[in-house]
Amino acid sequence: MSALLEVESVSKAFSGIPVLEGVSLSLAAGRVLGLVGENGAGKSTLMNVLGGVVFPDTGEVRLAGDEYRPRGPAEAMARGVAYIHQELNLLPNLSVAENLFLPRLPRRGLLMDRRRLEALARERLLAVGLDVSPWALVGDLGPGARQLVEIARALAADARVVILDEPTTSLTAPEAERLFALVRRLRDEGRGLVYISHALGDVLRLADDVLVLRDGEVVGSGPASGFDEARLITLMVGRSVDTVYPARAEAPPGEPALDVSGLGRGGAFRDVSLTVRRGEVVGLAGLMGAGRTELLRAIFGLDPPDSGEVRVHGRPLRPGPREAIARGVALVTEDRREDGLVLDATIADNLALASLPAHARGGWIDQRALAQALAAQAAAVRLDAPAGLGRPARTLSGGNQQKAVLGKWLLGRPSVVLLDEPTRGIDVGAKQHVYRLVADLAGGGAAVLLASSEIEELLGLADRVLVLRRGSVVDELCRAEFDRERILAAALGVAPAGGRS
Amino acid sequence: MIGFLRRWPALGLLALVGAVFSALSPEFLEARNLVNVLVQSASLGIVATGMAFVLLTAGIDLSVGSAMFVSAALAGKLVVAGWGLGAAFAVVLGVGLAWGLGNALVVTRLGVKPFVVTLATLYIGRGFGLWLTQTRALNLPDSLLLVGSARVAGVPLPVLVLAAVLVAAHVVLEWTAFGRHLYAVGADPEIARRAGVPVRRTLLGAYAAAGVLAALGGAVAVAQLGAVSPMFGREREFAAIAAAVLGGVSLFGGKGRVLPGVLLGTLLLQTVENGLVIVNADPYLYPMVLASVIFVAVLLDSLQARAWRR
């Protein structure tokens, strides 16, 4: 059997940081390739190369024997590669049929040919086994049906390669079964499929071959029959530790600073209870979409919870960021560009933003004291701002922006600090500074709740780790029990690798 | 019927307003007055239809009142100077088109927010028009008033123009690729772009439609009034936005229809104004009553948009 799609030693680096290193794979027609790896292992980048979203730095891709270097998603589609993204790209206010064919709606003269559009849409919907009216609004469909519409859209009749990125995250079990049936049917029609998922059981059930990525490299590949979940997990996590974590003093048993009981909000998370003591760092692990960000936002009061209670130093916290800040709670958000920094304001203004009340006397701001505090704070977080604090925050590098966000919150001397992915997208050196800051915070008596996708980071910094899966706490480990595989297994919802440690 | 009312709350409000005014004055329900409401609605309905194109893209055009003024003032000068009505009418539409394209180019090429761009052109246009007319009213020949009060097969000409505009706009929005692209861009420009929708060209079309229809609505009003005063078209942008939003066109983009939506919204506003005149309400109360109606409409829109997002 000749290969339909061949990837040969493809490498890609983003601003000097390698994301893919010499990755090769081969996909035959009529087969399903399961692609697994931790968050950040390079799965998405690899598929973005195939989908024409990203150009590889080196390496070669061949499609049915011909050179394949798509310069954009449109070209990838035209060559017969359908990439179905994890997040849906549908317009809720338009009909199913229109979503399927936009912007190439069939016409007769100047007008849209509604009858032909309907016929074409029915054909596509039939191909994915979705039984809805072509004129139904996409906004009125459930997540399962939307996923199928998305697939139907990407699935031009001549799509030879179909890439599915985490297609089941928002689906119920029966909906997922329908999707699996569709995957098998597409395979039997002679197309080649790439199936990316954190649901390892699904991957093993569906895939003919498996490819495991770790840190941008292929660490395992072969027929799916040669793998089981335990082996996949071992391959996914077994990495060398090359980051040094600051030494943490053994946490003295401080009194509880943050008490969360029975907290729930919509479909994001439910019945979460946890306690963080003074001087303690508690890690929050979980896959993307497990509810970590939502939980932190709810504790801080950005999105008020539906049920449950948050207590700070024993007293209930009314929902709302102003109240939270006044009570000494700080939230460092994951998306610093969106939530954390006012990019066009000066660095100094950003630093001061959350702690103005502390430097105000009767409503007037003590400018001199504030300037001194800002300079001291910039030095404390090792903010590298060569042009001074009067420059816009936009001019800082990613790592320094993150330090500025941290500095902003720490200036208010918070006693409860919520950190959401504090090291995402920053370089190794800046990470070290952030780790140092976290350790110093806890050393100074603050209670720290740290959410991170990098299990390594949690193991290096936290005193305890809670694992979230689908909005519930499914496991809790104290330092003596720390085990990467157990955390990943809990996050994925599979039994931990037995007998190994 | 209940479902229809839920979908078009303007219809229920219209019935309510009609019931109140007919209780207050027997004159209100007379056929003569109802036709009058339709005739008075023509100009606003046309301008509001153009506004709907822009609102559907999640944009806004605050400059339509000034577009009405400038195009009418320019054409009025030409008519006074001896031009024929047909040629002057072509100039009106040409100015409207250029106006809309100008707005759109600044929005799409320079990336300035529509609110800011059209706020600027609102004042630029008003100033230019005042300079052009030297703040004096232009009195136009009686032949124009004859056109404005003409009837075709018993139907007043302004009503016919309104009907033609509404039907044409409805067909464009519902039955052409351009129309569907408007909805796509209004819902999410990024997703629309990724799907391959020509976002810039779509926006260009939306603002061009707003400009042309503003000018046309201005021409209809001038033909009814017979003069262009320095106040002509002032604050019509708010009436147009209100009519569109009352008719269910969302300020957040991507949602709303010209038929029956914009028509209902226009009739509602015009009926309130007409009724206030008939019951001899204090003219100083008009803006307050109209503003309250608009507030309710915008409030409903916000609540629905929030539900939509959930």
Q: Structural class of chain A, please?
A: alpha/beta
The tally of domains of chain B stands at 1
Uncertain segments of chain A are: 497-501
Number of helices of chain A: 17
Shape of chain B: globular
Beta-strand percentage range of chain A: 25-35%
- CA-atom Rg of chain A in angstroms: 25 Å
Strand line-up of the largest beta sheet of chain B:
1-4
Outline the structure in words.
The complex is a heterodimer of chains A (501) and B (310). With 501 residues, chain A is α/β, with parallel strands linked by helices. In chain A, the strands form 6 sheets. In chain A, strands 6-9-10-3-11-12 form a 6-stranded mixed beta sheet, with helices on both faces. A 6-stranded mixed beta sheet of chain A has the order 18-21-22-15-23-24, with helices on both faces. In chain A, a hairpin with a 2-residue loop joins strand 1 (3-14) and strand 2. The longest helix of chain A has 16 residues, at 173-188. Residues 497-501 of chain A have low confidence and may be disordered. Chain B has one domain: ABC transporter involved in vitamin B12 uptake, BtuC (Orthogonal Bundle), CATH 1.10.3470. Chain B is 77% helix and 3% strand. In chain B, the strands form 2 sheets. A two-stranded antiparallel sheet of chain B has the order 1-4. In chain B, strands 2-3 form a two-stranded antiparallel sheet. Chain B is globular and about 55 Å long. The two termini of chain B are 26 Å apart. The model of chain B has no long low-confidence stretch (mean pLDDT 90). Chain A binds chain B through residues 73-74, 89-94, 98, 102-105, 107, 110-112, 114, 139, and chain B through 171, 175-177, 180-181, 183-184, 186-188, 191-192, 194-198, 254-255, 308.
